[in-house]
Amino acid sequence: MAAHPGEVKDVVLGDKVPAKLLHELHGGYIKEWEANKGGFEYVMSEYLRMSGLYWCLTAMDLLHKRDSFDADEVVAWVETCRCPDGGYGASPDLDPHLLYTLSAIQVLVSLDRLTPEAADGAAAFIKQQQLPDGSFRGDKWGEVDTRFSFCALACLALINKLDEVRVGAAGDFVLSCMNFDGGFGVVPGSESHSGQVYCCVGALAISDKLHEVDADLLGWWLAERQLPSGGFNGRPEKLPDVCYSWWVLTSLRIIGRMHWIDADKLRQFILACQDGETGGFSDRPGDIVDPFHTLFGIAALSLLGDQSLKEINPIFCMPEEIIRRAVRTDRLTNINPVA
């Protein structure tokens, strides 16, 4: 629902909001989406398919349904996306990029199928992307974005190879993107955005520079993202979107300010974004569902303490049990901040 001038942009929840998480429907939706490889949506998602695989696998894992995936088939497909320089493309024959390299590593680590060769190759590719100021380009074409800083550091943390890059310089670049309102943008001077905030506080937690953040100032900006409907928007004057239930909530969790928002209203908004017929989550109630919003809706519910789901790690958006298995113990202090 659009707002009139002077009104808060928000949506109105209907009277028939589901009271609980629709486990079986969501599992069925994801299985059908993955199986329908000739469908329009699947075909048109080639440019981000590796991330789509991560979204689907992680959502099913949180739902205790990871075994519905054929691990050998998944790993074989991921291998077809590995490029000669060690990075991964979104699909076979596409150029490598940090976004899809992280997704590939997340998938392999989740399945406990990461090989030394794959880890060494990914580390070499990531090292090549770091620039003199500590930032990371996404690929050889040179775009710089704090998302890529997070992708690089998260990937290296998962494969226990953070020493391959200048971690301190990476953290300093992220700090240079901090704004007067406490938030972060894509590069220095860019507008604060909730998605970038997640990437930046995650990168700072991994690089052991989270103490440089003004948690109260940033926490205030993040808490202001909650609208009367209970949902979060990504920046001022925008509509709520269920994916920000993850980006905002987990950022608050990382800086220890998650108690500053109305968790019950947020939970209600997330549940309202479920499709009670097909399964899956949409950005807002009544819209079309997709795997992206399905993962982040489920992940946010896990972060809110839904006991029917596996516990989620706030940095990596992966089940906590996987992070405990995969990441070196001496790194866990930095990447598991307390609420």
Commentary on this structure:
- It is globular, with a radius of gyration of 19 Å.
- Helix 1 packs antiparallel against helix 3 (about 50-60), helix 5 runs parallel beside helix 7 (about 145-160) and helix 11 (about 245-255) packs parallel to helix 13.
- It contains 15 helices and no strands.
- It starts with about 20 loop residues before the first helix and ends with a helix.
- The chain is mostly helical and about 350 residues long.
Please state roughly what percent of the residues sit in beta strands, choosing from under 5%, 5-15%, 15-25%, 25-35%, 35-45% or over 45%: under 5%
* Rg over alpha carbons: 19 Å
Query: What composes the largest sheet?
Result: none
Mean pLDDT: 94
Backbone shape: globular
What letter string, H or E per element, gives the SSE order?
Answer: HHHHHHHHHHHHHHH
Low-confidence stretches: none
The computed structural class is: mainly alpha
Helix percentage: 40-55%
Query: How many strand units?
Result: 0
First-to-last CA distance: 34 Å
Number of helices: 15
What are the main properties of this structure?
47% helix, 15 helices, 339 residues, mainly alpha
What would you say about this model in short?
The chain has 339 residues and is mainly α.
Topology of this structure?
Layout: H1 23-35, H2 40-44, H3 49-62, H4 71-80, H5 98-110, H6 116-129, H7 146-158, H8 167-175, H9 194-206, H10 215-223, H11 243-254, H12 263-272, H13 291-303, H14 320-326, H15 332-335
